[in-house]
Structure formats: C-alpha cells, structure tokens
Design a protein that fits this description.
Length: 330
C-alpha cells in the first residue's frame, strides 16, 4: 500500500485534499480516541508518515519518482532522487552517512574569504523537529465543535461545500503546543569544522546525536572580488591617475591580512596583473593556492578632495590637451 492509498486520496490530489484526508483519518485513529488499541496506533503512525511525505512538495516529487517510475531506475540514482545528492559525483566536502531512511537536519554558516584559507571551528544552531507529543501529529486538540457557518451540515445554500469547515460540518481547535503544525521545533547546537578550501553554497554534512546535519556554507565575497576557476580570484584595484598613465607602484590589500606593493605598468584596457599563489585553495586536499589577478582602474578623486596645488597642476595638464577655444573655458 502506497502513501496515497494510506490517506485514501488519488495521486492527483491537491495539497488541500491531502490535508483534509489526513485530519479526518487522524482524528479517527488518534490514540486518545483509541486507548489500548495497538492497530489504531500503528495506523496513526502510518498516516503521519504518509502525510509528512505528501504534504511536502519536494518530498512528494521524489516519492512519486521512486514509487511510480516512468522508466527503470538505476539504483545508483535512487540516492540522488531521494536527497538531491549524487553518489556518482561525490562532493568532497560531503560526509558518507547521508543514507536513505536517516532523517537529516539543516544548519547554515557564513564565513568570509580569508576564513576559507584555514579550518574554522564553529558552533552552529539548528531546529530539531519532532512529532508533537500533545496532539500526536494531528495538529488539533480537544473535541470537535459544530461549524457555525453551515450549522453542522457541511454545505451551504445550493449544496455547495462549506468553505469554513471544508465540508466536514465540524471544526477542531488548533493544538496550542505546536500551533497546528503537528510538529514542534527545539533549538539545538553542534560543533562543526569548516574545512579549508570550502566554496560558496557548498553543503557540508556532519554527524550529531540527533542524526546527520547538512550545513549550508555561504562564503561572502567583497564587492570588488570575483571568483574564477581553480581557486583563482579577480580583484578590482584602484590606482592613482599618474600610475595609470606612466606606471608606478601602488599598495594592494591581500585576501588575508596584510598588503603588498605592486608595480603597475601604464594602464591598458583589459589589463590583469597576476600575483601568484594569493588566491584561494581549490579544495580541501589541495596544498597550493590559486592565483590572484588584479584588474586596475583609475581612482578619480572628487574636486573637494583636491588641494589648490593639485587643482592648479591639473589645469596646467589639461591645457596640453585642449584647443584654443576650449582653453578659454578653463
């Protein structure tokens, strides 16, 4: 029996159909209504499993692929269908305990570029989701009350289904413990090592007493830095006007703490200056860093930032590039 049959709905059932069917059956087999009835308790657990899967669009899609395959399923791809992770191309940051049937939890962490150059030990928080012990996952508590909109009939004028109670004729109070969610979340913490060479948006899995935890790692890039391939970085660097024209040196901040003095040739369009080994590590097990490429541009100062001496010299320089008519306007 598949999950659709457990809930008594068609495979094309909408989310509202699934929710309505679950609540009706959950109330029927709820342990509070069936004390000392192991069969009812087992049925209630099966209903919860079916509802948790079919009420989540992503889990429902994966369940449908595996339960109603259009073509033969390669066993190696079943892992990917269930969890969105391919075994054929394993992520070097991903653990090996993400197996079917083991519930995973989610956490996230934000680090900067410099922090990817070393292992980072972090304490992370995540929400542990458990079935509500008050309502046993039914999302309602207490007894049913007659719907005031349809007076318990389930339909209104012309036989149309009552929208307030969904045609049930009765309404149930929302469980105060889980706020009608059927599950409760409790905050938990884990200690995790973020490996050197981690890349942006890379999932990292660690084990915890509560099961596997998948950590989404976000690497923050400065506005003037772009990511290349194999650990390469491209950084926009402002240089003074005189360096851009005749060449010279300028101080550049590195990704890690510290600066270096770089000799720039006269500026040309599309010019890149390579600083070897000052990029990122391409992966956790690679010993050498990628290169840092500097993309210079002219740092044009604002007029209020210039002294009278600067302005005088710039006007003299401008005269060398102007016509007689233009010179009269200077």
């Amino acid at each position: 029996m598949n999950f659709y049959e457990v809930l008594g709905v068609d495979k094309a059932a909408t989310s509202d159909d699934i929710k309505r069917a679950f609540r009706s059956l959950a109330l029927q087999y709820h342990p509070d209504r069936n004390p000392n009835n192991p069969k009812a308790e087992a049925q209630f657990k099966e209903l919860n499993n079916a509802y948790e899967t079919l009420n989540d669009s992503r889990r429902r899609s994966r369940y449908d692929k595996l339960t109603f395959p259009i073509h033969k399923t390669n066993p190696a791809n079943m892992f990917d269908d269930l969890f969105g992770v391919s075994q054929a191309s394993p992520n070097p940051f991903y653990g090996d305990t993400h197996m079917p049937g083991i519930k995973t939890h989610k956490a996230s962490v934000v680090i900067n570029l410099a922090e990817t150059l070393h292992h980072q030990q972090r304490t992370l928080s995540f929400a542990l989701r458990k079935l509500c012990t008050t309502c046993k996952g039914a999302a309602v508590s207490g007894g049913a009350e007659r719907c005031g909109a349809c007076h318990g009939v389930g339909s209104g004028k012309g036989g149309a289904m009552c929208e307030v109670c969904g045609g049930a004729g009765s309404l149930w109070r929302e469980c105060a413990t889980c706020k009608g969610a059927g599950v409760v979340e409790t905050p938990q913490q884990i200690s995790a090592t973020i490996p050197r060479g981690i890349i942006n948006n890379c999932p990292l899995q660690v084990n915890s007493p509560f099961g596997p935890v998948v950590i989404s790692v976000v690497v923050q890039y400065p506005d003037n830095v772009k990511q290349g391939t194999n650990g390469r970085l491209i950084k926009d660097v402002a240089i003074p006007y005189h360096v851009a024209v005749i060449g010279g040196t300028a101080t550049v901040e590195l990704i890690e703490e510290g600066t270096i003095t770089v000799k720039f040739p006269p500026l040309q369009n599309g010019q890149l200056i390579k600083i070897k080994g000052k990029g990122l590590y391409p992966g956790p097990n690679i010993a050498e860093r990628g290169d840092l490429f500097l993309k210079p541009y002219v740092d044009v100062p604002r007029l209020e930032e210039l002294t009278e001496e600067h302005q005088t010299i710039i006007r003299q320089l401008a005269k060398l590039y102007t016509t007689d008519t233009e010179e009269q306007n200077l």
